[in-house]
Amino acid sequence: MSLKTCNFMILYNRLLDNYNCLFEIIKKIIQDSVLLEKEIFDCNKLKDQGKKEYYKKNSAWSNGIIGFAKSMAPAVSIATESLNGFVQGETSIEEVTVSLNNMVALVTQFVMSCKTKADPQSKPLASIRRGAREIYNIAHSNVDKIKALQMPSSEPPIDISSLTKTKKVAFENDLKIRILELERDLEREREKLFKLRSNTYH
């Protein structure tokens, strides 16, 4: 095994450890959310019928919790698949980054929902917020590690200094065209994302 391959495997194993840590924190957040819900109901002295009315009356809070519960499992699955795909050369670093950012966004939204009804001094809420910060830090650490795993481009660098003025101008025009094409593609993808979010969250 070459030194490069050995370093790759070391980084990959560290990345796996981080992912496992992420999943344990998410599990803890879910457990804390159950305690927080009980605390909120106990504070308001709610029984079964009262709980149903409370959910209806506070739909933004309840929808935030339900949305988190429904979305987190698929988000974790996608994050795991994207990591495995990246290691096998089938997934880009951008896909892995997006999957991690989605997990962070879901947890952040969940914390905001919890804060709307929880006592600011609530211990379960404090634990949830700590978990959210840990997820944020680990996710960004994972992105840095993934960048370290990324293989360098196989395309040889272009020696611009060796080009004639005419070729430099032509090369510049090619780059401008490529940038415009990428910007157009980016705008199309943004429109798709906007439509998807509108359909999913509204």
Order of helices and strands: HHHHHH
Radius of gyration: 23 Å
Assigned CATH superfamily of the largest domain: I/LWEQ domain
The CATH architecture of the largest domain would be Up-down Bundle
The outline comes out as: elongated
Protein name: Huntingtin-interacting protein 1 (Trinotate prediction)
Main location: cytoplasm
Organism: Myxobolus squamalis (Myxosporean)
InterPro entries: I/LWEQ_dom_sf (IPR035964), ILWEQ_dom (IPR002558), Sla2_fam (IPR030224)
Characterize the structure shown.
GO terms for molecular function: actin filament binding; clathrin adaptor activity; clathrin light chain binding; phosphatidylinositol-3,4-bisphosphate binding; phosphatidylinositol-3,5-bisphosphate binding. One of its GO terms (biological process) is actin filament organization. The chain folds into two domains: 149 residues, I/LWEQ domain; 44 residues. Helix 3 runs antiparallel to helix 4 and helix 4 runs antiparallel to helix 5. It has 202 residues and is an all-alpha fold. It has six helices and no strands. It is elongated and about 80 Å long. It is 84% helix and 0% strand.
